[in-house]
Each structure stands twice: as structure tokens, then as C-alpha cells.
Write the C-alpha cells for this entry.
Amino acid sequence: TAYFVALQIGAVLKGTCYFAEEIFHLEARYRGSLSRALSACLHVRWHATLLVVSGLAHAALLDGDGRSLGLHFILACFCQLLFLVLGLH
């Protein structure tokens, strides 16, 4: 489940990076619409649903190792950003 959470976090972060780049092309490509640009870069419903389901499954399966769910989330975000920066995706 942690792997699926990390995959969804990576997809959301990658889409966010694409969206940050597409902001410069709002007028030319999206007629000035932020929502069109956002929907082109992120499949919000799909990734949000999978992230919530994977996150809940991961939280349910935590074995009480003393680490909080927030720490797991932060580490997964950091690892995905590192993969994006290093071009490992």
C-alpha cells in the first residue's frame, strides 16, 4: 500500500510541475482558463480517489512501528520529488 501511495503522490507532484509550466501558456492554449489547464495536467478525481483509498489502506495496515502517518507521507513526497529531479521516472 505504501508503494501505491507513493505512486499517486508522484503522479500528483508531476502533474503539479506540468501545471506550473502551463501557467505561462494559459492564453495561447487554454483561453485563459486555469481550470482547463489544471484538468489537462492533473486528473484530479482519479488521483485523489486512488490516493485516499491507498492512504486509508496504508493507515489501516500500519503495524505500530512508532512512526506517524505524517512522517510516512513526508518521506514518500520527498522520495517522489527526488525521483523527479533525478529523472528516474
Summary: The longest helix spans residues 2-22. The chain has one domain: 1-86.
